[in-house]
């Protein structure tokens, strides 16, 4: 039996950083140095190849243009390998995983994002385990021993692997900047846990569209048009009319994520509802996303969200803010038809929300 092939795509992040001797700041370094730090990679029963960004970045510098670059790398190599591991900083990993999930339609192979909280060169690094297990997951096939090629991949979606847990990427949120367990997926179960064995939660996985044990299925479609003309308006008690109107009237903005309280609630002040209505009448899309980590938007449950339903704010169930940002950019890049935009935003496209 031949070995599974996995392509590593190195974008940057703490995993590959070193301390600058002069300033003491952490900065990305090149991929060769990264792999030199992990001799274990040579023992892998998987055929590994790698592409590195020529200028690896801290993921806080992430841009939609880089998401497009990653998606193009996946498209170019899609038929050559069994799975992908994307090395990425943890700060914006949830945004990138969400964006890739929307951009890669009909995905039939694993795309696993991982990184670390401590650089790979540090003795207590979490990067080695994260990378090694992410590779194992990217290589895994149903009913075959680890690392063997052929058959159906166990994972056919974009995931994040971090600190012994595999998550659906577009359900995650970075909630901790200190602990090795940096991510949470409050509204969707973990897809796998790595202990002595790798235990997959099969019933929670997206199925892909490959017939069991066969090649083929629907062809991968890579969406490369993203429209970043969006804004996030986060509610807080005391938010002023000036601030709300400045965001609603910002130049070129086509859609706004309204980050509300609890199950989708916000102020009932007349000026606020009037300002939202005016924006909607002008053609701006407003998506109601909760500030809570868990639970969902239910417009009309309380009197404080009843007006939203009436004026045409779109409720977005239990989507995360990160996935909502990526979904809006994807949907606006795909169509300018208001009905179609609304339909897509209300639909579960890649397992990102419960409908
Ligand atoms: N600032 C880093 C980044 O996101 C943090 C990390 O990698 O965990 O690139």
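-> sequence recovered:
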């Amino acid at each position: 039996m031949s070995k599974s092939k996995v392509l590593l795509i190195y974008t940057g992040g703490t995993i590959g950083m070193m301390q600058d001797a002069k300033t003491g700041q952490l900065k990305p370094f090149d991929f060769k140095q990264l792999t030199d730090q992990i001799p274990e990679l040579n023992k892998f029963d998987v055929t590994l190849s790698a592409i590195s960004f020529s200028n690896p970045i801290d993921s806080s510098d992430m841009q939609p243009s880089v998401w497009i670059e990653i998606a193009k790398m996946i498209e170019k190599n899609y038929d050559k390998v069994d799975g992908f591991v994307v090395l990425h900083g943890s700060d914006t990993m949830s945004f990138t995983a969400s964006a890739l999930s929307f951009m890669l339609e009909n995905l039939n192979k694993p795309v696993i994002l991982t990184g670390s909280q401590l650089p790979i060169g540090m003795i207590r690094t979490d990067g080695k385990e994260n990378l090694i297990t992410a590779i194992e997951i990217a290589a895994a096939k149903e009913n075959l021993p680890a690392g063997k090629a052929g058959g159906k991949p166990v994972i056919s979606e974009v995931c994040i692997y971090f600190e012994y847990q595999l998550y659906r990427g577009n359900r995650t949120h970075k909630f901790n900047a200190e602990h090795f367990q940096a991510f949470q997926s409050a509204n969707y179960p973990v897809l796998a846990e790595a202990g002595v064995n790798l235990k997959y939660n099969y019933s929670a996985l997206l199925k892909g569209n490959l017939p069991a044990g066969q090649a083929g299925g629907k062809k991968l479609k890579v969406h490369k048009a993203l429209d970043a003309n969006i804004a996030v308006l986060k509610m807080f008690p005391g938010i002023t009319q000036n601030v709300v109107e400045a965001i609603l009237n910002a130049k070129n903005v086509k859609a706004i994520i309204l980050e509300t309280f609890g199950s989708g609630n916000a102020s009932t002040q007349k000026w606020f509802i009037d300002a939202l209505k005016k924006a909607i009448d002008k053609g701006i899309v407003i998506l109601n996303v909760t500030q809570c980590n868990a639970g969902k938007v239910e417009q009309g449950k309380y009197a404080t969200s009843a007006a939203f339903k009436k004026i045409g704010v779109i409720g977005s169930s239990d989507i995360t803010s990160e996935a909502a940002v990526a979904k809006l950019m994807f949907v606006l890049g795909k169509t300018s038809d208001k009905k179609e935009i609304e339909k897509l935003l209300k639909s579960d496209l890649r397992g990102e929300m419960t409908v």
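The CA atoms of residues 60 and 91 lie 6 Å apart.
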